[in-house]
Amino acid sequence: xxxxxxxxxxxxxxxxxxxxxxxxxxxxxxxxxxxxxxxxxxxxxxxxxxxxxxxxxxxxxxxxxxxxxxxxxxxxxxxxxxxxxxxxxxxxxxxxxxxxxxxxxxxxxxxxxxxxxxxxxxxxxxxxxxxxxxxxxxxxxxxxxxxxxxxxxxxx
Amino acid sequence: xxxxxxxxxxxxxxxxxxxxxxxxxxxxxxxxxxxxxxxxxxxxxxxxxxxxxxxxxxxxxxxxxxxxxxxxxxxxxxxxxxxxxxxxxxxxxxxxxxxxxxxxxxxxxxxxxxxxxxxxxxxxxxxxxxxxxxxxxxxxxxxxxxxxxxxxxxxx
Lengths: 156, 156
What we know:
Helix content of chain A: 10-25%
Oligomer: homodimer
Number of domains of chain A: 1
Structural class of chain A: alpha+beta
Largest interface: A-B, 26 and 26 residues
Distance between the termini of chain A: 27 Å
């Protein structure tokens, strides 16, 4: 299902849902972060997805990273809260979400890198390679916060 | 509307909603925390409520604390995430929520202490007075985490 992200855009549609979601900042041993080239909007993004019944939000990010990247990870910290009401995501089925995303720092425990149908490609990306990839500003902000290695989580 | 909290209870109803909420840990200058004696379940609790369209989650807690206590506060940090799927809240209108609550440390900027219709009483409570109040275990956990003054937010 295609998605369109709006940020601080007067033409954004009015939201009709808020669904908690989680993304994972997964790193290799060399300071690179794992990004996926998404099918739904042709942009590069952190792996992640929406919170389900029966799981905690930490379990959400562990499950989504496994599904989308093949890697088993554990959460080592919270990078930030991203709940800016000016960020709206419209889906083709009529759902219009106001973003509510938590971003977690993750460490790889095992598994084999393997993409699923939601992405065209997975890639380990160094900080100085970010400018060469098409990344939505709201996603780039989360990635930048990860690389900034903040002492306290971002509360946005 | 009356609510019933279930924690790790095999008789809890099956959840049909997840709604982000925020509570505030508001302190005076003497290390006490502000609690309200709730009308809906006759228990003592942190002030707070559910996230609305058009606001960030930090704006939610500032608004809810103002509505329920009369105080103007600012958020100074995140105490923790509380998303344990074993905590279920059933309302009399049929909604059954799986908890999704963020707890924030708050500093008083101004305002006058004044309760609203959701509570019977507001009280500044010292840590050693907590055992004398009826507090749900899931709420007590959040209050204890605040007093523990953790370096990193609790990720539950």
